[in-house]
Amino acid sequence: MSALSKKQRKHNRLLRLIRRQAPVSRMELARQLPWSTSSVCGLVQELIDRGLVLEQLEGGERRGREPVPLRPNPVFARYMGFDLEAMHMRLVCVDFAGNVCWKQQRGMDAVEMGRDVVKQSLAFIDEGLAAAATEDGGPVVGIGVAAPGICDVRHGAILHYDMLPAVRNLPLRDLIGQHTGLPCVLDNNIRAYTLAEWLLGAGQHLSNFICFGVRSGIGAGIVLDGRLVQGSHGFAGEAGHSPVFGISSVDKWRTLEATVSEKALGVNTTDGGIQRLSDSRAKRAGEFLGGYLAGLATLVDPQAIILAGALVQSESPLWGPLQAAFRQHVLPDIVDKVPLLPSRVGPFAAAIGITQSCFESAYPSAGQD
Fold first, then answer.
1. Of 25, 40, 72, at which residue does a domain stop?
2. What is the pTM of this model?
3. How many of the other CB atoms lie within 10 Å of CB of 366?
4. Is 236 in the same domain as 315?
5. Residue 253 belongs to a domain
6. How far apart are CA 182 and CA 240, in angstroms?
7. Over the stretch 181-204, which tens digit does the pLDDT of each residue have?
8. Which of 127, 164, 167, 332 has the fewest beta carbons closer than 10 A?
9. Separation between Cα atoms, residue 111 and residue 100, nearest integer Å
10. Shared-domain flag, residues 155 and 180
11. pLDDT in tens, 231-263
């Protein structure tokens, strides 16, 4: 990719702010940026002239000098987001403003080799692209992949995923990009989920929080000082691989994911299986999770911990033991300052969040947004 000009970086930074904060006025943007108001107004007008941004009054009538809100032009383009799990595949299509146009889910068939995962993924994405082609709206200009397991984000590959042993060193980003002819980005699915929570859900207006997901696997997304943490090697948030300490010898310790994930507990949360857990198993799993979250809160001191996945919602039989263990073991000084918040974006969050990564990849701003 050629180096961006200073003006392009400014355009992109503005566009990303408008998408995140819409509806937003020129003056509100100018207050957040180290540029003059006249410069911001000129750059905004250029985005409008290019069709990227719309001026749109609420109710269609302006009163006096009331500022005109700015929004991304929803029909300028669309992005597709694909979320791969051990038991499910999810697909969404969003418009240029980030609104979900449609979403689909289907189960994963049994896989024996990595190519089985690729075949199912490409078939599902092809169906989505075909459906998008028949609908009104801008063209699909990019695909994001929310991938499970340990991912090499730089090279767009799933290195390994314990829930699907056949998946090893799978360059899924490039395979999808080559098959569709569209730009493709790949990131870990819990980090993608965290982006959706930050933009649309319980993480809005927070600059320091942890999104902790318990689904077929376990992972965490960490936002510190308004930045999604990737880690020095791209592996930040791999909570599921943390050891669960026991009284047995160290070589017999298990991981958190092998102890309290949906797969480890043998529940399918889409068919109500969670309610069939015995009281003793639910209590033990809840206590494990609550203790782990207490450690995270004490270590990071976030504004909140957002819990994603049916196992960690208030209606789950794990919730009472989880909350009790958290409050018992977290640093007493922050016990009432770090709430455990339910996710507000639902099971399609990772697919939605990865479309934001597509957008940011298309409109980079040198790490400034």
1. 72
2. 0.87
3. 12
4. yes
5. yes
6. 32
7. 999 999 999 999 999 999 889 998
8. 332
9. 30
10. yes
11. 988 889 999 989 887 767 788 888 999 999 988
For the record, the structure tokens of 327 come out as: 């409050």
Cis peptide before 23 (omega within 30 of 0): yes
Return the beta strands (E) in 281-355 as ranges. 304-308, 340-342
Report pLDDT for 249: 78
223 pLDDT higher than 90: yes
Query: When comparing pLDDT for 301 and 247, which is higher?
Result: 301
Spatial CA neighbour of 285 closest among 262, 306, 268? 262
Count other Cβ atoms within 10 Å, centred on residue 131.
Answer: 14
Asked if the structure places residue 90 within a domain, the reply is: yes
Partnered with residue 72 across adjacent β-strands are 53
Residue 279 shares a structural domain with residue 355:
no
List the CATH number of the domain containing 236: 3.30.420.40
Does 208 share its domain with 102?
no
Number of domains in the chain: 3
Pairing mode of beta strands 304-308, 340-342: parallel
Question: At CA 199, angle to CA 218 and CA 342, rounded to 5?
Answer: 50
Range of the domain at 100: 78-193+349-362
Region at 306 (left for phi over 0; alpha for psi -120 to 50; beta for the rest): beta
Same structural domain for residues 151 and 63? no
Same structural domain, 85 and 179: yes
Residues 167 and 158 sit within 8 Å (Cβ to Cβ): yes
